[in-house]
Amino acid sequence: MAFSLPELPYGRGALAPHISEETLNYHHGKHHQAYVTNLNGLIEGTDLANASLEEIVKKAAGDKAKAGLFNNAAQVWNHTFYWHSMKPGGGGKPTGKVAAMIDSDLGGYDQFVKDFKAAGGGQFGSGWAWLVLKDGKLAITKTPNAETPLTDPAATPILTMDVWEHAYYLDYQNSRPNYMDAFINNLINWDFANKNLG
């Protein structure tokens, strides 16, 4: 069962001016597509050909012989999750369950912003900043390259911010902080976060 590139949950121009249509043409249309194409080539004719994406990520994690398989499968999953972590007219202070949990678990919204930016800005090279649910509480974490909280049985991903350069370079050049500000203030999909909290 070959995987296909998931559709974006909005038009490619819908996140402008914070993330341009040109960035999404490359990021979704080229980078994400390449991970899907590579993944299909790697699983074809193997015992994982009919496995779910989550199963492939978990089975390949930590196995050096399956590093290529893990990297491509995890990047397909991470990117799909990232697209849903954003919405047109998003960002700003959350509402609902996630807002209450940010107050109780993370010291309030302003502290969340500071710590989430520190996770994204402190990730050397390529990677991801995450809001996860762990042991019943929200936590902020970061992962390098294709790594994902999906491989941690104790963690449930709630929201992610891609800090690979290709996520922002066309719009913000080398200014990851400006991209992170735009993501937090204008793009975060708090409805998606609340849905993931169940």
Automatic annotation (TrEMBL):
Pfam families: Sod_Fe_C, Sod_Fe_N. Its EC number is 1.15.1.1. It is an enzyme of class 1 (oxidoreductase). InterPro entries: Mn/Fe_SOD, Mn/Fe_SOD_BS, Mn/Fe_SOD_C, Mn/Fe_SOD_N, Mn/Fe_SOD_N_sf, SOD_C_sf. It comes from the Bacteria. PANTHER family: SUPEROXIDE DISMUTASE, SUPEROXIDE DISMUTASE [FE] 2, CHLOROPLASTIC. This is Superoxide dismutase.
